[in-house]
Amino acid sequence: SAKEFFQSILETPSPSGYEQPVQDIVRSYVGDFADQITTDLHGNVIACCNPDAPLRVMFAGHADQIGLLVTYINDQGFIYTNTIGGWDPQQLIGQRMTIYTSDGPVPAVIARKPIHLLDQDERKQVVKTKDMWLDIGAKDKEEAAEAVHIGDPVTLELGYQEMRNGLANSPGMDDKTGLWVCMEALRRAKDRGLNVALYAVATVQEEIGLRGATTSAYGVNPQVGIAVDVTHATDCPTIDKNQEGDIKLGGGPVVYRGPNM
């Protein structure tokens, strides 16, 4: 079902540059209704209905999510990382994480110097990613290096959780919600009948520079393109609607207008 597809992509890791597991799910799902499915050299999955029509319309939603990348293992077996995409480091403190290795996922927790041991100056500073590390429970570097390798990608512990009033939360909703919308729009549009060639693209590497959207757009060469991504709701504390607009969660899609986007 559409909901099962949505939950499945959210529970599957896809840090930028490592999107293949999610793209496999996308290809399988659209295989039931798309007239044409291609995967370009960059890794974008391009599903199309009515491909012979002269007018090409492209929907794009990115498959990748922010993550981390293993860069160093110290003598005590603690693991250091660089970021994939843009993180608020404060959000990482104490989080359960998963490292994806060639032998399967390895659970970890991300840590920093405890607040009880920070001096007054340290407490005033925003934590930096270089001051945090991953702990997989290894006794030393040798044990950690047997399980984890330099270059392995990392995400928050994945999981889909439903809440009240038809809401849900999950890591990676940026932008697997948009990916889902694009693929569902393609399916439903085909059911209603199409007079254009409609392309729905699960793009790669958005979080590190909009890369897949650029390459796939050159490949499809659409006359009309619509990017579907997340935005910020303003019906919550601390957000200034005078600056950010009146955007309500559950209030429908937001259409962004501007001279250059």
From TrEMBL:
Keywords: Aminopeptidase, Hydrolase, Metal-binding, Protease. One of its GO terms (molecular function) is metal ion binding. InterPro entries: Peptidase_M42, Peptidase_M42_aminopept, Peptidase_M42_dom2. GO terms for biological process: proteolysis. Transmembrane segments: none annotated. Belongs to the peptidase M42 family. PANTHER family: AMINOPEPTIDASE, AMINOPEPTIDASE YSDC. This is Peptidase M42 family protein.
